[in-house]
Amino acid sequence: MPAASSLAVVIVLALVGLPGAVRAGGSMKLTSPAFAQGGAIPLRFTCDGEGVSPPLAWTDPPTGTKSFVLIVDDPDAPDPNAPRTVWVHWVVYDLPADARSLREGVASSADLPKGGRMGRNDWGKSKWDGPCPPVGSHRYVHKLYALDLVLGDRSAVTKRQLEEAIEGHVLAEAELIGTYERGK
Predict the structure, then answer these.
(1) Mean pLDDT of 84-104
(2) Which end of the chain is more exposed for a tag (fewer CB within 10 A), N or C?
(3) CATH of 21-182 among 1.10.3380.30, 3.30.930.10, 3.90.280.10, 1.10.3720.10
């Protein structure tokens, strides 16, 4: 196949999308009034402070969004058996399509917008457990996914189970990274 034809095929596939592919949401953004992208997460939201969840807001989900999923994890978590492990701090799903924010201090599913649910974090709890690195600076990645379906009650679903359930249903995603440092 000539180079120009190959390029045309790639462009068409990118525009049409493949089953299971994540489509860029274009303008969907995730922010927090508590910290900037790449900025330090205030003590209040960590294990050294009050340990409450930070406020979050998002804009411009794509047409066809039926729900949102939010996963917060620490890709810098140490593991004695591996160089790196991702530690999951919060799993939230079935946020309604018209939701555009989470307030500070969400303690249970009852505090989420109507229909929202919490899955299980790596402490085995269905709640926010804030940054608490043993030592050094860690990144806390807040990932918001716009989905073309509502998942329904999945009880104490984990990040891995949720990622499997949303495969092929992600319309867009947005990311907000904050940092927190303890001891040196």
Answers:
(1) 94
(2) C
(3) 3.90.280.10
